Amino acid sequence: MSVNLTSASELLSRWFHIQTGYVESSLLIPPAQNRLALQQVFQTLNARSCPTSYNFHLHTRRSDGQLEPDEVMQQAIDIGLKGLAITDHHTTQGYKESQQWLDNWKQNHPELANTAPQLWTGAEINAQLLGVDVHILGYAFDPDAACLQPYLQGDAAFLKTDAYYAENVIAAIQGAGGLAVLAHPARYRRPFTELIAEAARLGIDGIEVYYAYRHTNPWSLNTEIVNPVKQLTDSYGLLNTCGTDTHGRDILLRI
């Protein structure tokens, strides 16, 4: 009987990496926590990706949004989104309800299951960066990871602790297997040039480049801000992300 040595070697290698913690495989983690798959999506994004193909900044009533999680998901399906993340402030409850709704929808519509959008875990977390309050988006992390729990209690009690510092927020998101992204970098009390540079130094994964800084209908980018943000982001080799930052009743708009 012949033995497939290559397969045996691969299995041994996979076993070793599982035991030592150095593994990230789509066979071993839920799709919503597949960091590598999301990273590949981020690498394809451009100015036309949001809001009708992808949307990685959405809020529900589990924080300060006006939509129920199921309403967000129904709109995502109606629009034909390929992928999205629920990024409620300091909680993943909206994501969990959305994931349950999506799973049920797929079971009830098996003929359409392969057209459903991919939902990733997400959250928006306050952090102190260069002395100002900023928001850091976390994606594709394990929502039950112990290192993230101080940030996912539905409030901002951690603001009075060292957990508030951006380097600790970034480390917690990445320690939970996720990607850390600086949200809307041109909305803060320090120049985005300084904030992106410091965030890059701290090891952040990406910047929310494609963001509508004016609340227009339809949603549209402010190229005079977005273009220099993208150039700087690219110069640091960081990922580009996009999102509407929806708080209202329409996920194609911010409010």
UniProtKB/TrEMBL annotation:
Domain named Polymerase/histidinol phosphatase N-terminal: residues: 54-129
Xref: SMART domains: POLIIIAc
Domain of life: Bacteria
CDD domains the record matches: PHP_HisPPase_AMP (cd07438)
GO molecular function: 5'-3' DNA exonuclease activity; 5'-3' RNA exonuclease activity
Protein name: Polymerase/histidinol phosphatase N-terminal domain-containing protein
Species this chain originates from: Planktothrix tepida PCC 9214
Lineage: Bacteria, Bacillati, Cyanobacteriota, Cyanophyceae, Oscillatoriophycideae
